[in-house]
Amino acid sequence: MTPSRDIARLLEIMAALRTPGSGCPWDLEQDFASIAPYTIEEAYEVAEAIARHDLDDLRDELGDLLLQVVFHARVAQEQGVFSFGDVVEAITRKMIRRHPHVFADSAGRLTPSDVEGAWDRIKAEEKAERAARRPEQPAQTPSLLSDVKPGQPALTRAMELQRKASTVGFDWNDPRAVLAKIREEADEIEAALDAGNSAEIAAETGDLMFALVNLARHVGADPESALRGTNAKFERRFHFIEQALAAQGRGCADASLAEMDALWNAAKAAESQG
Asked: What is the pLDDT along the chain (274 residues), one digit of tens a residue?
């Protein structure tokens, strides 16, 4: 198998990886749900390459993201649901339909606001058509939260769900009340740890994270940005530990937790002095 610029080669590679008996054991055991986190991760890596203005890396990351599309399409094809060709046809149909000012016989010059208005109208039509194709569901009471997009990152969606609920008064008035909720959730995690219930531990951890997002919202901090900042700080300080140990001819595996903790505090002190 040789590399190629033709998408057909990538489809052949994925088919080979998913062939029982001769394919890759890891690839063979994947399904939509298990692949989904990698799909999200690759999308973030595309965005990160753009933020760094690294076009070589962007090329590679776009390839990784394309692989995710091919992977999902292959799983669907094996289940007899749809194929990669169906995915391509669906998006080409959608783009042609959403750009009548470019592709229709009556195409003409429109302003950006005209285009945006047409785009919203056509998207609404498509949404109604998709709803009509789905099996009829029992009537449900309209929800205030229905407009919160389900595909957002979890931190962002938590913030939006809370903002929506706050518009009808379902909210705390004081950040300290949110702190009390955080302590309550931490206590519930401790109880779940004592019980050794892994499912409950995970659920209570989610509750704690939701409460932390709520605190961020109340103090005017974006949780995603705040966590990115903390990630960068952790990387900085951990690298300080690695450098300090390397200067002694050692690595982290050779140091005790107490030693690394002392170096962490030294890194914090150095930052505060800087």
From this structure: 899 999 999 999 999 999 999 999 999 999 999 999 899 899 989 998 998 999 999 999 999 999 999 999 999 999 999 999 999 999 999 888 888 878 876 556 667 776 777 777 777 777 777 777 777 666 667 888 888 888 788 898 999 999 999 999 999 999 999 999 999 999 999 999 999 999 999 999 999 999 999 999 999 999 988 998 999 999 999 999 999 999 999 999 999 999 999 999 999 999 988 6
Number of domains comprising the chain: 3
- What is the C-alpha separation between 194 and 190, in angstroms, rounded? 6
- Closest to 69 measured CA to CA, from 108, 110, 40: 40
Domain of residue 84 covers: 7-98
Please state, in angstroms and rounded to a whole number, the distance separating the CA atoms of residues 259 and 253. 11
Residue 127 in any domain: the answer is: no
Does the residue 30 lie in any domain?
yes
Ranges of H-type helices in the chain: 7-17, 25-28, 32-51, 55-78, 84-98, 100-103, 112-133, 154-166, 175-195, 198-218, 223-247, 257-273
Judge if 217 and 229 occupy the same domain.
Answer: no
- pTM equals 0.64
